[in-house]
Design brief:
By secondary structure, the protein is an alpha/beta fold. The protein has helices at 13-25, 40-49, 66-75, 94-102, 115-183, and strands at 5-9, 33-37, 54-58, 84-88, 105-110. The chain has a domain at 5-136: Rossmann fold, CATH 3.40.50.2300. Residues 128-177 form a coiled coil.
């Protein structure tokens, strides 16, 4: 089964590497794949290509900031429900936080990031994505099983239909033989005239 993916978006290379390291080191063998992007534009390209369990998105980036990136991600039907966690250093900026929630954020992480908090927040969405992938896989298996069952039923119906047709032919032949025996003289095999009352 496919591994869920986590997208990290940050224009600062050191911060991006630190986040990636925190997520990949803390679990050893992770049950998800980490994908990185260095800009909002690059993040949009990645989102078009892959599905993500969660996106950790830097708020302050040159060009397209985190808010604009989140708004575009959530404007597309395929990615409208992807959870976004904004990453920022601004603790007290309530207006920015409100704006983030309005753009579709499910949560905020404040730098410096505490590894356990980061991991627990990511784990929640990864676990949800794994359950969704498992459900999709089981739905696909069920559809295949249903298709196989339909094929099997069609084959059985064709066999029954063939047997029924053979029985009908056999009965017609028996009826014709019986009719022939009833209407012909058994010695001469000549048709007897109909009995007149």
């Amino acid at each position: 089964m496919l591994k869920p993916k986590v997208l990290l978006v940050n224009d600062h290379a050191a911060s991006l590497l630190a986040l990636e390291t925190l997520l990949t080191r803390s679990h050893g063998e992770t049950d998800y794949e980490v994908v990185t992007a260095r800009s909002g534009e690059e993040a949009l390209r990645k989102v078009l290509h892959d599905q993500f369990a969660v996106i950790l998105l830097d708020v302050s980036m040159p060009g397209m900031d985190g808010f604009e990136t989140a708004e575009i991600i959530h404007s597309h039907p395929r990615t409208a429900s992807v959870p976004i966690i904004f990453v920022t250093a601004h603790y007290a900026d309530e207006m920015n936080r409100l704006k983030g929630y309005q753009k579709g954020a499910v949560d905020y992480l404040f730098t410096p990031i505490i590894p356990q908090i980061l991991q627990s927040k990511v784990d929640i969405f990864v676990e949800l994505a794994k359950k969704n992938l498992e459900l999709e896989h089981k739905t696909h298996q069920l559809a295949e099983l249903n298709r196989d069952l339909q094929v099997q039923q069609m084959q059985e119906l064709k066999k029954m239909n063939s047997a029924l047709q053979a029985e009908i032919i056999e009965r017609r032949q028996a009826e014709e033989r019986a009719h022939g025996l009833a209407t012909r003289d058994p010695l001469t095999r000549i048709a007897e005239p109909p009995f007149l009352a």
